[in-house]
Write a structure and sequence with these properties.
mainly alpha, single chain, Glycerol uptake facilitator protein
């Protein structure tokens, strides 16, 4: 149970910190943090929670990471469903808190006919810069694949484990720097689902891409590291 609570808390912090920075601070007049600030915020959420609760649950905070670690032989398949449920619960709780805070803003409305509404992910007209479904799928697949390679490499028994959280957090920051204009960056199905549920409409209809592409990418990344890249001795 403590492992599941740690996953929920960690995923809550990822969504609240990452999506919250996009909603509250990214476009603030004159002082907004912009894409770079949002990218750094997502990286910092993972970095901080990796050290805070990673020793309890492994610090996945992402269904794709959980599946990828299983593909790489680092996680038991029987625990995948409970981890994913815990991650989604944490993400939804964070989205609910973000929405509640936004309700207190004068003039707040949820316009789910626009790209990136409530920090959602999307393709086509719902991509921040108009990228089609194929482009978004490829980006999410490749970026999640490399994210798993970073995670597995940084936590390898031959690596310096004390710095794993830093490498993983900075890896996620780089991923966001690359892909915010493409898809508003997912690489995390729980993060995508939580925002899409509150936004509804087209973002909810498109959320399947942000489950399928990251999970496939994570599986390939897990296999590649374990069976091609990993040093055995």
């Amino acid at each position: 149970m403590k492992k599941l609570l740690a996953e929920s808390f960690g995923t809550f912090w990822l969504v609240f910190g990452g999506c919250g920075s996009a909603l509250f601070a990214a476009g603030y007049p004159e002082l907004g943090i912009g894409f770079a600030g949002v990218a750094l915020a997502f990286g910092l959420t993972v970095l901080t929670m990796a050290y805070a609760v990673g020793h309890i649950s492994g610090g996945h905070f992402n269904p794709a990471v959980t599946v990828g670690l299983w593909a790489g032989g680092r996680f038991q398949g029987k625990d995948i469903p409970s981890y994913i449920v815990a991650q989604c619960v944490g993400a939804l709780a964070a989205a609910g808190c973000l929405y509640t805070i936004l309700l207190g803003k004068t003039g707040f409305t949820m316009d789910n006919t626009k790209a990136s509404v409530f920090a959602t992910n999307g393709y086509g007209a719902f991509s921040p810069d108009g990228y089609n479904m194929a482009s978004v799928f490829i980006a999410e697949f490749l970026l999640t694949m490399f994210f798993l390679i970073i995670i597995l490499g940084a936590t390898d028994r031959l690596a310096n484990g004390k710095f794993a959280g830093i490498a993983i957090g900075l890896g996620l920051t780089l991923i966001h720097l690359i892909s915010i204009p493409i898809s508003n960056t997912s690489v995390n199905p729980a993060r995508s689902l939580s925002q899409a549920i509150f936004a509804g409409g087209i973002p909810m209809q498109q959320v399947w891409v942000f489950w399928v592409a990251p999970i496939f990418g994570a599986i390939i990344g897990g296999w590649m590291y374990t069976y091609i890249l990993q040093k055995k001795n």
